[in-house]
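Kindly go through the following sequence and its backbone structure tokens. Advise at your convenience whether the structure tokens fit the sequence:

___
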Amino acid sequence: MADGRGGLPPAFIRSAMPSDVPAVRALLAETWHATYDRLIGAEKVAEITARWHSEEALRRRLSVPASEFLVADTGSALAAMAFASQQGEIITLHQLYVRPAFQRQGIASDLLRELTGCFIGSKRWRLEVASQNAPAIAFYRALGFSSRDRAPIDDPESGLLHLELTLDIPDEHQWKGL
């Protein structure tokens, strides 16, 4: 549980439910606009969020096998969400977004810890992050993630950075720097 630093209410981590989908969609739209408008423009962000974060797409994630869809709930709003899946010993983080007002409160780290505990036998985390998203890259690097490679996305000038973290076994809950 994030402790509500900064005068914000604490957030409790729980599994997402179908009734959360509209609030998750709003959280994603807000977070994407705050993060990516300056990089790719508000119109492109609106187009992407309409497609990738539709209620139908989010509802499908609730039933993906070998996955976890978590939210950080303050009781009055969703502060963050995370979606990850496991294949063998690898956990893939597909989404981790914290509403701007709740960033730097420890919620993202709490979500990652909770997800790690959900996937028994996992030895490695993998994720992709937009190479222009410096705050997210700094966050993951502070946790011990390192670069694997770079993959092109829509614009050849930009790309996705592939990051990876090997978990210390047997205590997979140890995060570098935490």
About this structure: Strands lie at 12-15, 67-73, 78-87, 90-98, 124-130, 146-151, 160-166. The two ends are 15 Å apart (CA to CA). The mean pLDDT is 87. Residues 5-166 form a domain with the Aminopeptidase fold (CATH 3.40.630.30).
